[in-house]
What does this fold into?
Amino acid sequence: MRFISEISVVASLLFAVACHDPQPGADLVPLPAEMTFTGGYFQTDSVSFARGVADGRVVCELDTSSPNLSREGYGLEVRSDGIRITAVDSAGLFYARQTLLQLLTAKGIPCVKITDNPRFGYRGIHLDVSRHFFAKEEVFKILDEMARYKLNVFHLHLTDNGGWRIQIDRYPLLTRFGAFRAEADWLKWWEFGDRRYVPEGTPGAYGGYYTKDDIRQIVAYAAARYIEVIPEIEFPAHSDEVFIGYPELCCSGKPYTSGEFCVGNPATFEFMDGVLTEVMELFPSRRIHIGGDEARKALEAGVNSLADTVKITLGPNAEKFLAEHGRVMVGWDEILRNNLRPTSVTISYRGQRGAIEAANRGYDAVMSPGEIIYFDWYQANPHTQPRAMSGFSPIKKMYSFEPVPDTPERAAANESLVKGEYVAPDSVEHIRPNAASHIIGVQGCTWAEFIGTPEHLEYMMFPRLLAIAELGWTPRERRLWADFRRRVNSQIPRLLARGVNAFTLSNDVEITARIVREGRKARVTLDTEKYPAEVRYTLDGSDPTAGSDIYSGPFVVEAGTTVKAALFVGGKPAGSIAGLYVDACHNVENYYAY
Ligand code: ACM
It folds into this structure.
């Protein structure tokens, strides 16, 4: 599996910086916009810090006229004799507190001056609770971690063909007949099985749903952490589970015949309005996601009816209905088929194209390209990992994504991440500079076909969620892989100590070679996710051993050289041995050994 990291040269130049012993506490994620350590500590410990501001040494100031701060921004000065926090809104105070909690060490909080504002107002994580159901307690745990890393939108994918997951009083058969199935395993049930749902109460059935009270608890838990919960009710496709209880809503009128609503039937609109009414009662978010997912299938097959379905259900109906209730429609990028209201928001998942189109047409959009920032894709060598969706999105690839491709070069670099090869800047669309502000944020999505337990969910989300947090918060020019790598490695033991089952990152080595302009030579960089890392390499085709050269920075080789490298722990290769034949014909090569 290959991919190109466009930042690897910059990253390697910074290697020397990253190798220095960092300032204690300087492993903040996301990295603040401006931060200077000034020396010394504010003496405290987690117990007295948790007691808060009682002793007057921590001063919080709400100053609504602060010119350098946005609503979620904060100024923070930690001195040995006290802490001063400034913010224009309580959200900023909350984020200052998250920063302080991360900075806290055994010696106290290092003295520091920070001025911090998020890059985007929408910093999202999505969770599919349909294909597999996660109890509210697991949702609380995810929300805790999101808040810690300053993520502020939780997109809750409540309905899909895996099961209907929210109590709707007007349509009780949704959960009575559409929330449980006989088989938990997705492959056995959906891909190779009978796809049958079973009634609630069936002995041994797999599934579940959130009661209204559960939803209220989730919304309140999130709100206390400055997280907006955007509910998603999927229309007009991916709705097989609806028609078990309400077969009249699909065109054949029979269960198990379709996953798509029948737009010719007025009951479809009644249903939509009825469900959305109860959803709006539960979720205060202005933004309500009405799906649109993969409503393209029929289109691609040359059938127009589903395109019409999207237009009719999601355009004049859902969008209008939501607007009448003061809400805004959010949808997957299929909604761009419609002429949208100016307030509607597109989540771009089929690459970056949807968001680029939306922004250039004047609509707000969230970047969530599936090929780059989906948590259900493999994060390391598939031979070492549990079954996942078939793509490959290790943390460095996620981190290398640029959410605002406002130049041809930036758009091409994103496309290179998707394609794993060079993409010419003039071959892709980019966002026009005056449309860049329509990119309101970034979102990592967690589809749960292959994620059946809370432990597995955490394994797929962490630590990659930290990359999304930094894409969402940190200014573009402050984001450097080599520095993030150090910080994320430092965060992993903290995640584990909090009981989060994080992946501890790959043991493989990435070899990158770039041809040096003067001749048949290449500059070779060896990179790892682990930090610090003992990487050993050879240039003669032999496998590296405990006696091979240790990598200490980029080096130059003749074209025709075979570079082999491995990460060593305790005198032995910890992962697979990577190899790259440096070929003068190619100016960019990456290689993961599997
Ligand atoms: C999606 O990933 N199908 C929205």
